[in-house]
Every structure is written in C-alpha cells, then in structure tokens.
Specification:
The chain is of the alpha/beta class. The protein contains eleven helices and eleven strands.
Length: 303
C-alpha cells in the first residue's frame, strides 16, 4: 500500500469508526483526572495535537500520532502510531504525564490505565464540541486562559462566516468524504449530525442528508439521484492531490448527468486537511466551504 493510500485509509478509518460509534446524546469527551498542569503530553489525535499547539502548549507535546502534520513542528516529535496501531511501548518510553487517546481505543485505554498513566479521552462529534474540547483540555493542563482565547476566537470566526452568507440562497449540497478512486462506488457522505454537517450549515449549504441522524452514511448513486443535490462538495486530506488528479476525479461524476450539480458544473473536490480535522482550523474550513458554495461572495468571507 502506498503512503498516500495508507494516509487516506487512516483518515477515513478515523472518521468512519468515530462517526458510527459516537452517541450524539452523550458527552463526547472525558477527562477523568482533576485539572492540573501537564508538561509531557502524548497525543494520538491530530485534532487535539493542533489544539495543544494553538493554546501554546506545543513545547509540552513529546509524542504525536503518525498522521499528525500540522503545525509543521509536529514532525520533530516522536511518532507513537495512530488510531489502529498505537505503539504502547513507545508511549511509555516517553514518560508522559498525560496521554490523549480516542474513546474507541479500548485496548490502549486499558493498558494505559493498568500503567496508571493519566488519560484524556476524545471522540469526534459536533462543531460545538471543538471549542468545548479546547476549553476542557485547557483546564486539564493548566492553560484555561489560553484555551479560552482560542475557543472564543473560533466562535467569533464561525459567526463571521454565518453573517457573510446570511440572506444568500442555500443550495442543496451533498458533502462527500470518501469513495473508491476513479468510480462512484462506496460513496460516504455526511449525515445530519457531526462537525462536517455543522460546517456545511455554517457555510450556507443545506445538507441533502440532513434528515439522516448519523454522522455518516453510505450513499448509492440511486440515493444521490433521488436527493438531487445542486452542489457536490468532496472533502479529502491534502496529500497527493495534484491538479491532474483533481480533474480526473471530478470527471468521474459525469457518469451521473441527471444530477443538478453535475449538469450545472457544480462538483467541487477540495483536498485540504482543514476540512477533515475537527481542530482549531475549523474557521478556515467554514470559509473555504462558503466560498465554494456561494461563488458570488468568493473572496469576501471575513478574515
């Protein structure tokens, strides 16, 4: 398997595992320890790694997942595996005083508990949970004021995007985050809950699957034809998406000419990590979506 396909598989695995298991009625994160400082943090969650750096705790991060790429400084930190292949021995060797893990990593959680290492649980959920996580994490590591500054800035930024699209038509949009390369098989789309759905709503699009109360669903071509999206927006990780590849994959949609989005040339493939990582860059993601969905206001989204 190539590095690109491994990366994509990991990102989609993280999205799929978490969106199918998250319970929208229950808390999405859990910090079992009382608030305290932490100066040797291992994070297996790229979104949380970004949060830590955004609140000024980057110097305290001593280990990251093998798929952390932002900010660039993470490349200087030791890799400890990822969602499906955490390296327990490597984690222990870094002598952490806090380990950030996905709530679905049950085996790792049990081993860390037996080693009596402090744990911060995390799971993807809605857009509001990004700022909730930042505030909770900041309190946990003794950086509450820094976390509040970051979270409040995100909330202001999202409000600016909402205001920028207020009064604009809201096109019916299918938000796709996975399918087989070169085909329209195994399409995975955002459902009516979750951070990707929420970003689409902020950006001024109406999710064609808003009535499906799940964070993701597998959408057949027949289902898409029935929902008749006016805009199709594919969101992918950044790596290895050349202009030529973007053009090839966009042309695949010509196989469904009856879709309004295809007929009107409103199929967009966006290869940018900000769209698939629910971290402090969600404002960038919302701006990008808004500029694509509302072409008439492209370039006017508040910075």
């Amino acid at each position: 398997m190539t590095r690109r396909s491994t990366l994509v598989a990991c990102v989609l695995c993280a999205l799929w595992m978490l969106v199918w298991t998250a319970d929208p009625a229950s808390p999405v994160l859990e910090a079992r320890q009382a608030a305290t400082s932490a100066h040797r943090i291992v994070s297996l969650v790229p979104a949380v790694t970004e949060m830590l750096f955004a609140m000024g705790a980057g110097s305290d991060v001593v280990g990251v997942s093998s798929y952390d790429r932002y900010p660039p400084e993470v490349r200087t930190r030791p890799s400890v595996g990822a969602l499906v292949d955490p390296d327990f021995e490597r984690i222990i060797s870094l002598r952490p005083d806090l380990v950030v893990v996905y709530g679905t990593q049950t085996d790792l959680l049990a081993r860390l508990a037996r080693a009596r290492l402090p744990i911060y649980h995390y799971e993807h959920a809605g857009l509001a949970d990004v700022t909730q996580t930042i505030r909770s994490l900041g309190a946990r590591i003794g950086r509450a004021a820094d976390a509040e500054r970051v979270a409040a800035g995100i909330e202001r930024g999202l409000d600016e995007v909402r205001r920028s699209v207020a009064g604009q038509p809201r096109p019916k949009t299918a938000l796709i985050f996975g399918r087989e390369v070169g085909t329209l098989r195994a399409i995975f789309a955002s459902g009516g809950i979750g951070f990707m759905h929420d970003l689409l709503e902020v950006a001024g699009g109406d999710d064609v699957f808003a009535d499906v109360r799940r964070q993701s669903l597998q959408a057949s071509a027949e289902l898409l034809i029935a929902r008749r999206p006016e805009v199709i927006l594919e969101a992918h990780p950044t790596e290895d998406w050349t202009p030529e590849r973007l053009a090839r994959e966009r042309d695949v949609w010509r196989g469904l000419p009856s879709l309004p989005a295809v007929r009107n040339g409103r199929v967009y493939i966006l290869a940018d990590d900000v769209l698939v990582i629910p971290g402090p860059r969600v404002v960038e993601a919302a701006r990008l979506m808004a500029e694509v969905i509302h072409r008439s206001i492209a370039g006017s989204i508040a910075q």
